Amino acid sequence: xxxxxxxxxxxxxxxxxxxxxxxxxxxxxxHRAAARIDDRYEIVAGVLSSDPERSRAAAIAIGIEPARAYxxxxxLFEAExxxxxxxxxxxIMTPNDxxxxxxxxxxxxxxxxxxxxxxxxxxxxxxxxLDATExxxxxxxxxxxxxxxxxxxxxxxxxxxxxxxxxxxVQVEYVQGGKAAERDPExxxxxxxxxxxxxxxGGPSLVMGDIGTHAHNLVRYxxxxxxxxxxxxxxxxxxxxxxxxxxxxxxxxxxxARGSFWVTQAAAGVENCLRLRVSGTKGTLEWMQxxxxxxxxxxxGAPAEIRTPNGPGTLxxxxxxxxxxxxxPEGFHEGFANIYSDAAEAxxxxxxxxxxxxxxxxxxxxxxxxxxxxxxxxxxxxxxxxGAWTTLR
Length: 393
Ligand SMILES: NC(=O)c1ccc[n+]([C@@H]2O[C@H](COP(=O)([O-])OP(=O)(O)OC[C@H]3O[C@@H](n4cnc5c(N)ncnc54)[C@H](O)[C@@H]3O)[C@@H](O)[C@H]2O)c1
Description:
Layout (H helix, E strand, L loop, with lengths): L4 H6 L3 E7 L5 H12 L3 E7 L4 H10 L11 H10 L6 E5 L5 H10 L3 E4 L7 H14 L3 E3 L7 H11 L6 E10 L22 H4 L3 H18 L3 E9 L10 E8 L4 E7 L7 E9 L2 E6 L6 E5 L5 E3 L8 H4 L12 H21 L13 H19 L5 E2 L2
Parallel strand pairs: 1-2, 1-3, 3-4, 4-5, 6-9
Antiparallel strand pairs: 6-10, 7-8, 7-14, 8-9, 10-11, 11-12, 12-13
């Protein structure tokens, strides 16, 4: 990662605007760090909050010049699209219901887009964003950041290289405990609740939007398979909860493989346990987010192996995703940065009119967002009909 393909191609860094990620937001700081780690972007404009005064103060506090600390995303799009030195890329990290509006606005003004998941709250909205992306030819990067870990990328390459044979079984779980003891917020006098607890803003299922889409995306990224049908159960296990805190589903894949999916935010004491097991005719891969530098490979009839970033047997996609020699752990920030850096390479190549390195193009896109929303929709529909097998739209 010593070279800077963006500067090589454009003679400068990409100019980035951030929308969302104001004080108190966990993910805003992750986006900004991810943009800076490989020095491919400079953050030059922003709207960090829905409150104009707080937004301006927060933008200035992260080094944005006052003239480019805007009151609303719409005013940012208008002003930046007419500046000679206007932004190239807009990164969206606002509540879920606004992704659709801001992504379409950014694309219509000619900006490449980096957007946090879920891409939108409904499948129809996601399809609209995909259509707009295809019509404009702009880059759309969806920050399913777990696909940026070197050992997840190693797993994808090992599956693609046939080391597992034909994939037959997939197990994915994303288990968190953050909502195990928490009570759902009371409605305020004006009937408002935090956006995640409002289905109009947070989406039809809290657990599916927050972490179910990540788990589904991880499976697709590593295996290259599509979930074709689901038999699901969604709901809440914490008493009197207004929103979903767990979802489980049996999966049938497009190649006939079978799978299971289990996500919850109410497992007392668990932190961020995203875990994947993929079994093929020749062996099994296992990976867990809480120890991300270890990928276990269990070949049929041979001793198990542990693969590590830049360790023996590292394949090219994983190699380009580590910045440091073997044995020096990289984690969440660096995985997130891999998504940003790959998107930067694709955006710079598009702007320079050259072909990007094909290895830069594995980051999740608008079509992955559409697949994610089709999965969410099918899981909710199946659960609503007593777990009936439901085909993804
Ligand atoms: N990739 C991940 O692992 C990950 C993790 C957490 C959250 N997220 C996603 O990030 C998004 C934000 O989640 P969060 O937990 O940071 O939420 P949050 O409520 O903590 O923060 C949202 C931020 O957006 C700002 N905001 C709201 N409306 C805005 C507007 N109109 N213009 C500009 N700023 C506005 C708020 O002021 C706040 O600073 C969600 O879509 C969520 O799904 C992704």
